[in-house]
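Form 7-S
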Amino acid sequence: MSKLLKSRSGRKCQLSGKKATKGWRYSFLRSHFNPTAKRRFEVNLHSVRTIDENGQPIKIKVAASVIKRCPELRLGIEHYTKRHKQKRLKGKQKKELLASLGLINE
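Output:
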């Protein structure tokens, strides 16, 4: 099983590690001098069926922002890990790569 999927806590994204945060709610019903109350911002989790590195189908809890950022997640976990471990090419390296693929003319 992947290192990413070992966390089995309740309301936490198993890929990005996102979890609930605390904040303040402004309320008109509280005192005039302190019109705030504590609240909890929950993470937007979805259950997704995907394939792990061994080719086995699994079901994981993933934040909606991760699904939006990586729509090919349903193809397998390795697509997510490969995509987010790559360094982005800039400037000259990017132009050389595109030229070698024949997408631009130098």
